[in-house]
Automatic annotation (TrEMBL):
Positions of transmembrane segments: 31-51
This protein's record includes keyword tRNA processing: no
Organism this protein belongs to: Citrus sinensis (Sweet orange)
The protein's name in its UniProt record: Transferring glycosyl group transferase
GO molecular function, one term: acetylglucosaminyltransferase activity
InterPro entries: DUF604
One Pfam family linked to the record: DUF604
Lineage: Eukaryota, Viridiplantae, Streptophyta, Embryophyta, Tracheophyta
Keywords noted in UniProt: Membrane, Transmembrane, Transmembrane helix
């Protein structure tokens, strides 16, 4: 499927080659959203190629292109970073402790398969009791059965005793005495981690000091029921080696002192408070104490790397109308191409048509009628409700904006369908296809975006994005002659370039 002739037919590649030959890759002098309504033959290649039989179930594939000339270079799945020095903290220094249960393991292990890297990631799944022939699967973490907790009292009226054994995963992992460990990362069996981003974040902190890194809940009431300073366990949290060592010494006594707490994360929090170590809050851990469609959060992610997603069984699939596990797998395709840039928002405008375009790289693109200020676009739309079924802004621990009922203000949403690395152009190319039916019952005198059926986004991988102070990328709408297509370039903002008109 990567024969040279087919490569040349690839529309994503084709477009970019043409542009680079004609030197039209730089920002056009006037930002014209150029759409010619003339059908051109290569338009149809896109549909044929991207939905041909080699992509069953619309599973995206990363096409590996051979360079025609000289050396046959294959694209690395992970874009190498240049300063992988021996001493820098990386994934190999991280030990995961996944809190799981024998009753849900059969199903939830499918989420773990989406992010676990056999022979690369270290750690264990901790179960309450053994499950049948579980150690056979080499694509999953090895299984451990938690130590007996019957000597501990559990006095919480709502929760379950599992909280005790799950909170002890940190100590039990520490006691295994594994070599060269710098961080212990806890998560649930329905948590998906974005490993490269997580390793990058942890590499900024000294594991020889005491660090407890995580994030509270999206739900204000959940943070009141527990603590704003608690790392919620499903979103995941990291404990430095030095702190895990200190925790291990006191944890069992601490558990005896706190029998009436609810969950495992609250028990960790209680012990951290005894040790006097506050939570280092790092955005990007997503507990997702919400129901419904999380797209509002992913379309306006904080300017921070995405680290985890939790509650994948409770929220709607990450991509609509898709199997939940397959949807997560789809997200892993752009993640492998440019993990640092995954889900990062950039905002730009089509001046001639008065549209606002918001790219959430590797996930979705939105087009809004009208020019909406960046300060509005950077606030998540409430496409979801809170854990307590609240749908107003006061239920959340962050700013949200309502989803408008006015058809003119409804965005056109395009979800990722495919992503690949284009060697000739040295850029990622990702494609987004319109999701919902057109909402054209709008009487505004603004061009109707429904003519745009697909969006192509080009972006250079930027593994050092988070080595710099946080800043959004900029996007630019490029001229194209492809019918029904918008072409967008995403990258570091140039001198003086802003998201504004
Ligand atoms: C992991 O490594 C072992 C031995 O080093 C090898 O036998 C096994 O096939 C590897 N598994 C995967 C999934 O790469
Ligand atoms: C596990 O055991 C069951 C029956 O006990 C069997 O049907 C299944 O194929 C086994 N799974 C693996 C991965 O060996
Ligand atoms: C591709 O771009 C990277 C920087 O983004 C650069 O370091 C590398 O040399 C480029 N490779 C080629 C073949 O142009």
């Amino acid at each position: 499927m990567s024969s040279p002739s087919k490569d040349q037919e690839n529309p994503l590649r084709d477009h970019m080659v043409k542009n680079s030959h004609t030197n039209s890759w730089s920002l056009p002098k006037t930002m014209i959203c150029f759409i010619v309504l003339v059908s051109l033959p290569y338009v149809f290649y896109s549909l044929i190629l991207l939905y041909s039989s080699d992509t069953p179930n619309h599973e995206p594939v990363i096409r590996i292109h051979r360079q025609h000339s000289r050396n046959k270079v294959l694209v690395p799945t992970h874009v190498p970073s240049s300063d992988d020095t021996e001493d820098k903290t990386s994934l190999k220094h991280v030990v995961f402790g996944i809190g799981a249960s024998s009753s849900t393991w059969e199903h939830r292990r499918n989420y773990i398969r989406t992010w676990w890297r056999p022979n690369v990631t270290r750690g264990h799944v901790w179960l309450d009791k053994p499950v049948k022939n579980s150690s056979i699967d080499h694509l999953l973490p090895p299984i451990k059965v938690s130590g007996d907790t019957s000597k501990f009292q559990y006095k919480n009226p709502i929760g379950t005793r599992d909280a005790i054994r799950i909170s002890r995963i940190v100590s039990e992992s520490f006691r295994l005495g594994l070599k060269d460990v710098r961080w212990f990362v806890m998560g649930d069996d329905d948590t998906v981690f974005f490993l490269d981003n997580l390793a990058r974040v942890l590499s900024k902190y000294d594991h020889n000091e005491y660090y407890y890194i995580g994030y509270p809940s999206e739900s204000h009431l959940q943070n009141l029921a527990f603590y704003y300073g608690m790392g919620f366990g499903g979103g995941g949290f990291a404990i430095s080696y030095a702190l895990a060592k200190a925790l291990e010494k006191i944890q069992d006594e601490c558990l005896h002192r706190n029998p009436s707490l609810y969950g495992s994360d609250e028990r960790i929090f209680a012990c951290m408070m005894e040790l006097g170590v506050p939570l280092t809050k790092h955005p990007g851990f997503h507990q997702l104490d919400i129901y419904g469609d999380l797209s509002g959060i992913l379309m306006a992610h904080p300017v921070a790397p995405i680290l985890s997603l939790h509650h994948l069984d409770l929220i709607e699939p990450v991509f609509p109308k898709m199997d939940r596990v397959k949807a997560v797998k789809r997200l892993m395709v752009p993640m492998k191409l440019d993990s640092a840039g995954l889900i990062q928002q950039s905002i730009c405008y089509c001046k001639t048509r008065s549209w606002t375009v918001s790219v959430s790289w590797g996930y979705a693109v939105q087009i809004y009628r009208g020019i909406i200020a960046a300060k509005e676009m950077s606030v998540p739309a409430r496409t979801f409700i809170d854990w307590n079924f609240g749908d107003e802004d006061v239920y959340f621990s962050f700013n949200t904006r309502p989803v408008s009922t006015n058809p003119c203000q409804k965005p056109f949403v395009y979800y990722l369908s495919n992503a690949l690395f284009n060697l000739n152009l040295n850029r990622t190319a990702s494609e987004y296809i319109r999701h919902q039916e057109s909402n054209s019952d709008c009487d505004w005198k603004i061009a109707d975006p429904s003519r745009i059926k697909r969006i192509e986004v080009y972006k250079k991988p930027d593994p050092h994005l988070w080595d710099k102070p946080p800043r959004r990328n900029c996007c630019r709408i490029l001229p194209t002659k492809k019918k029904g297509t918008m072409v967008v370039d995403v990258g570091v903002c140039r001198e003086g370039e802003i998201a504004g008109l």
